[in-house]
Design brief:
single chain, 2 strands
Amino acid sequence: MKRETLFKIILGVSVALLLYSVFVAFSSGLSKAGPFIILFLLLLGISSRGFESLKGFTYSLMIFTGVACALYYPKYLVEVNGFKLSVLITPLIQIIMFGMGTRMSVNDFVGVIKMPKGVAIGVVAQFSMMPLIGFALASVSNFTPEIAAGMILIGCSPSGLASNVMSYLAKANLALSITLTTVSTLLAPFATPLLMKFLGGTYIEIDIMKMMWDIFKMIVIPIGAGLLFNKLLHGKSKWLDLAMPLVSMIGIGIIITIITAAGRDSLLEIGVVLTALVLVHNMAGYFIGYWFARLFKMDERDSRTVALEVGMQNAGMAAGLAKEMGRIATVGLAPAVFGPLMNITGSILASYWHRKPPKEN
């Protein structure tokens, strides 16, 4: 059987499962449709690998499969034989950040000197626009203080690794994107706690020094170890270069699934509203980031880069901080929703820009 035919069959089965799950939901209740919805998402994710136009959504579909499992069967994803799965969150983030470090080099820091204007504008937009938008949305949300604080926390986080991939696809300035991600990540131990204290301190108690240390051990130390590994063993560990992107994607998926299971009851109660507000936050980041860059006469490629850097946050780090606070089921909800949503919107925006060559000033 040809590969293309196999993927078409899997896609057909997934569509059939979707239709059947809708029938079951209306006839027997949404709770009975769970297994069919999970299988639909899983097979849709697998089949998307066989279609060039859908490949970019495979990762998000797999995350939604995990989220669906968490919503229907949370008890299996919160604790196993007395072991709380939330304990895995911090080590997973450290592994992801180590992987980021192994892919970094001195050139990522040289970019600050080569592109000072772009770096300055990107960092200012990152740590001003997103925190303020998060605070504004939290203020009008009527959520409990801890869930509202989670919206501010995702806004106060640095940009994520996904923005680099999207910048490449969007024909943006990849070098600037990597430099901005690096700089904002290394500034996070200082910027994120201070911003959270200033904007989120009215919602929950923020221990600035503890948060600084939590970010330092989750982000800076693993990145430093990865940089050292890359320096000493450059070119001698190709298997690691191939494995780490996959490990990172799986790690983020596991983190989001665990958080969703832990906060299932709250998410079912406010899920629609939270998703809508998180989507507004994400989309506003793209829009304001782009036009903020254009305001300072940055060219089209660089403006696209800033838009993606500002709109796509490090949801994993925000989730890790929520776990370290002991509030994974509340503060961690907004990061858990933001993660998969930004991958979908980022893929759509990057695909749109990919078809439109950057305009010259």
